[in-house]
Amino acid sequence: MSDERIEAGARDAEAGPRFTVAEASLEPIYMQLASQVKRHVASGMLAPGDELPSVRRLANDLGVSKMTISKAFQLLESQGCLVRRRGRPLVVSDGVPRRAGPAVELLRPTLERAAQEASELGLTPEQALQLFGNVLSAADTRRTVKSKMPAAMPAA
Known about the structure:
With about 160 residues, the chain is mainly alpha-helical. It has a domain at about 5-95: Winged helix-like DNA-binding domain superfamily/Winged helix DNA-binding domain (Arc Repressor Mutant, subunit A). The protein contains five helices and four strands. The radius of gyration is 17 Å and the shape is elongated. The strands form two sheets. It has a two-stranded antiparallel ribbon. InterPro entries: Tscrpt_reg_HTH_GntR, WH-like_DNA-bd_sf, WH_DNA-bd_sf. GO terms for molecular function: DNA binding; DNA-binding transcription factor activity. It comes from Roseateles aquatilis.
């Protein structure tokens, strides 16, 4: 089973959130997307009032059904995370808190799954913590390098 991820997001010089779909994941795609939006809000990558990509654009970029994207957005709307305005793009709600608490709550299920898998593979807690530290450091390095890169030049 492949752990292929499909990525979509801002394609222009504006830095925007990236969305990925892990097709091999047991988690439904709409839930993957809803979780990513919540993480982007918790991390500050998406702020209140920020617009989300259109359903059509995100579906095309990710190669998934528009109904899947709509289901994720409807779930977030029902939870008060997104606001729909007639004839306008969906935006992040003003009422969504941005603090460490939600980020920790969002990360916990992922870490619980990783801990379960590490245990099943026979890793000790020390080995799992070392691995997590290495992965986190690599992610920080990639984020730092990405933020220092100049904006893309417009196509001629």
